[in-house]
Design brief:
- A five-stranded parallel beta sheet has the order 1-2-3-5-4, with helices on both faces.
- It is of the alpha/beta class.
- Helix content is 40%, strand content 10%.
- The chain starts with a helix and ends in a 7-residue tail after the last helix.
- Bound molecules: thiamine diphosphate.
């Protein structure tokens, strides 16, 4: 455990590549979820390229850690990290949402290697994560389970049933993360139906809670390391993020929840994210 400055730089660069690939695939496709894919790019990068154990050649490897994208509409992010991790070919990314493609608008576990569970109907992922974590407890296997939720998703009642369940069964092999970007499909979460105080709520439900800047790679990886040391209860990492993070074109703009960049917007964003050429 512990992260070196070189590792941090590599991870930060990786998150930039991930953002650029997300934007390229969404621009090519012309439909899909931009804001919530970009806001969670650092989180997914820390998980897939720092913390989680997996084998892309054997997606069903019994020793793997599990990632549940409960906010399934951020599928472009999941597909991108799966491509960078070697589960699918990079070239396949440009087939997003095309007829016959495996890369549907929401992830399908039946056809995409590395997708643990089909998601998209908000509120369900943490319950699935609980089941997998409980099974590993019963089997006395060391695998860990990670679930990523949206803050708007916290409005779903099932999330809180799952919160109770995880604490009841002392699922200390479970780490959930919330992408706390403050916006949902059609406005600020606080206006639609407020979910604050998020940290206090999870603590009251019996969870260990860490609160981090979800775009600060060092804070993210340190929280993921610390989560592994917690015993007897599940861990929630509240990640304070910006919807559309990466470019002024999208940042904090609710209209980019479910719309995609134009070619011109893509060009501006890629320049902002990195001075390098658009990745092949
Ligand atoms: C059960 C259910 N209700 C409604 C939707 C439609 N929907 C898709 S994304 C979204 C907003 C989610 O907001 P949040 O969880 O904050 O996601 P993020 O901002 O991170 O993209 C909604 C309501 C859905 N997918 N599932």
């Amino acid at each position: 455990m512990g992260v070196t400055p070189e590792q941090l730089k590599t991870l930060t660069d990786k998150a930039k590549r991930v953002r650029i690939d997300i934007l390229k695939m969404l621009t090519e496709c012309g439909s899909g979820h931009t804001g919530g894919s970009l806001s969670a790019a650092d989180i997914a990068t820390a998980l897939y390229f720092y913390k989680m154990k997996y084998d892309p050649k054997r997606p069903d490897w019994k020793g793997r850690d599990h990632f549940i994208l409960s906010k399934g509409h951020a599928a472009p992010l999941l597909y991108t990290v799966l491509a960078h991790a070697g589960f699918i070919e990079h070239a396949e990314l440009c087939t997003l949402r095309k007829l016959g493609s495996r890369l549907q608008g929401h992830p399908d576990s039946k056809c995409v290697p590395g997708v643990e569970i089909s998601t998209g109907s908000l509120g369900q992922g943490l319950s699935v994560a609980n089941g997998i974590a409980l099974a590993h407890k019963l089997d006395k296997t060391p695998n860990r389970v990670y679930a990523l939720l949206g803050d708007g998703e916290l409005q779903e009642g099932q999330v809180w049933e799952a919160a109770m369940t995880a604490a009841h069964y002392k699922l200390d092999n479970l780490c959930a993360l919330v992408d706390n970007n403050g916006l949902q499909i059609d406005g600020p979460v606080a206006k639609v139906m407020g979910v604050e105080p998020i940290t206090d709520k999870w603590r009251a439900f019996g969870w260990e809670v860490f609160d981090v800047d979800g775009h600060n790679m060092e804070q993210l990886v340190n929280a993921l390391d610390k989560a592994e040391t917690v015993k007897g209860k599940p861990v929630m990492i509240v990640c304070r993020t910006i919807k559309g993070k990466g470019s002024k074109v999208f940042e904090g703009k609710v209209e980019f929840h479910g719309t995609t960049p134009s070619k011109e917007e893509l060009e501006i964003a890629v320049k902002e994210i990195s001075q390098e050429a658009v990745c092949k």
